[in-house]
Amino acid sequence: MNKLIPKLKKKSYDVRSAMLEMCIKAETGHVTSSLSSIDILVTLYYGNILNHNPKKPSYNERDRFILSKGQASPALYAILADLGYYKKSELDKFAQKGGIFGVHLQDNVPGVEITSGSLGLGLGIASGIALGAKMDRELYLVFTLLGDGECYEGSIWETAMFASHNRLNNLIAIVDRNYLCVTDFTENLIALEPMEDKWKAFGWDTLRVDGHSFESLLPAFSNLRSRRSSRPLVIIADTTKGEGVECVANNPLWHGLAPKGADAESAKQSLKRRYANE
Amino acid sequence: MSNISQRDAFWTRIYEIAKQDRDVIVITADMGAPALDNFRRDLPSQFVNVGISEQNAILVASGLCMTGKKVFVYAIAPFIVLRCLEQTRVLNAIMNNPITIVGVGAGFGYEDGGPTHHITEDIAIMRAMPRIEVNSITDSVMASAFADISYNLKTTNYVRLDRQVFTDVYNANSEFSEGVSVLKESKGHYIIATGSMVHTALEITRRLEKKRIYVGVIDVYKIPINTSAFIKIIRKSKKLISLEEHFLPGGFGSAVCEVLNDHNVLVPVKRLGLPIDKHYCYKYGGREIIRGYYGVNRRNIEKEIIKFVSN
User: Fold this and answer.
1) How close does chain B come to A90, measured CA to CA in Å?
2) Which of A38, A128, A149, B123 is the most buried (most CB within 10 A)?
3) Which of A150, A162, A168, A202 is the best mutation test for B, with the most CBs of B within 10 A?
């Protein structure tokens, strides 16, 4: 077993817990969307994948991480606070008077590259950055995390064509494939499967992983810098919206909400139980 | 430079600038121009054709901008303004990635193209967003000058180029930093026009002169309007006529009236433009016929002005 995994599992719980606390306190935030993405984010930030530096958030050689599904901002904010991009006390002011950030992602927060929340934008921005890096012979990688629901946006597929045509092999997209949108499951709305085939047909290399297993996630992200392919890479990570908090998981009714009152308490207990044996 | 298209004047100058600065990138959504053929041939690494995908064009342009590039995005005006409006709002107006959006075919420039290719709402839409400057280009001299201005600008701008070739009204010594120019002096009344209507205004005022009606012409080519420069010019005028090839609600005339109202300048204003209750139209046979449908052909404008200034 990769020796990082116990550490990542602990971070997975810590970040979930911090994210849940901040959303419960603020009585807002996309809790289930965040829970879906956290293990992917933990892999990137704590699994020695991303080159970044909390003391120099804007240094030019950093890898770029573009969080396209901006509703998962509470997860990223909790991680950036833990890494020292800003004080952890900022999390207590999430979406409140005097706070530096709100429900959707904003680019003026240290460590954050873009404003998002409006969907379908991140892949195109990431492609522009990846193209700019190629023009300047920069070696950094550009990562972007998409929600599966935002793959309904036409702009995603405009960019998908563009990125492969321009051989942006420094671009890695991750699709958080939790199968849930706001009102229903994706396959009931408009089927997104076969998703891997779609990306392949658009000229991308693809990988499909378990988005809540570090044993599955870590190998997918390793050796990206020595990848031989001229194609961009998409990693489709199968996830569960609300992972780790049983009472809100995989339930469309919990989109965009933070649990309150008795629900909040049961969510916290549920999270503790889930990670008690990890 | 005279009597060349605004498009070629603009891109010829960008080509010269780009030869000196490899960070200048042109993104086109499958839109060409003779001047761009040189660019593509000589500077292929600075030329990106994204195909007919305006949303992706703005996204990629903004991503490139985040790596320090000076990006010019080019397409037919209605498509590069409207199809990707939300991308522009988030990436450029909210996030403040300064790029230059170049749209060709202002107003009825694509005269026989029908309403899909006309753009008669862009001033209202673009000026409603912070951090986006509208540059409504009058002639090829101004188009060339705005290549340099755009290159040096630290905010996003929308350069709206006309497709029609007009006789230049500016010359090599013209200066465009004020955003507003007096093309014909007046002690009484002024037509305040933008884009192609500046040429119409000049023509009409010449005809009015023969009837001993003296009306000046002000060209406003930068929106938001340079308030102090504009008010200084019109402060002592008696009546003002705003003239635009654009729907009236929220458009150029509205912008003029906002400035006057907010600065307590009490001058009667007649707004001439496209009445919204005339909807879109399928009229062919040239720009003047389409303008006629909306009541802003030369004859009607002249009639309206005579009526307005005579009362």
Assistant:
1) 22
2) A128
3) A162
Neighbours of B234 (CB within 10 A): 23
pLDDT in tens, B138-192: 999 999 999 999 999 999 999 999 999 999 999 999 999 999 999 999 999 999 9
ipTM of the complex: 0.97
CATH number at residue A9: 3.40.50.970
Statement: residue B1 has pLDDT above 50: no
CA atoms within 13 A on the CB side of B232: 9
Domain locations in chain B as residue ranges: 6-161, 180-310
Collapsed DSSP state (helix, strand, coil) of residue A210: strand
Summarize pLDDT for B249-308 with one digit per residue, the tens. 999 999 999 999 999 999 999 999 999 999 999 999 999 999 999 999 999 999 999 999
Q: Are strands B70-76 and B47-49 parallel, antiparallel or unpaired?
A: unpaired
B180-310 has which fold? Rossmann fold (3.40.50)
Chain B residue at shortest CA distance from A109:
B95
Considering only alpha carbons, which residue of chain A is nearest residue B88? A121
Contacts of B90 in chain A (CB under 8 A): 115-116, 118, 121
CA distance B224 to chain A (A): 25
| Residue A93 belongs to domain spanning | 5-275
**Under CATH, domain B6-161 is a member of which superfamily?**
Thiamin diphosphate (ThDP)-binding fold, Pyr/PP domains (3.40.50.970)
| 8 Å CB contact of A159 and B90 | no
Residue the block writes with tokens 């951090």:
B131
In this prediction, residue B2 carries a pLDDT of 60
If one counts the domains in chain A, the total is 1
Contacts of B72 in chain A (CB under 8 A): none
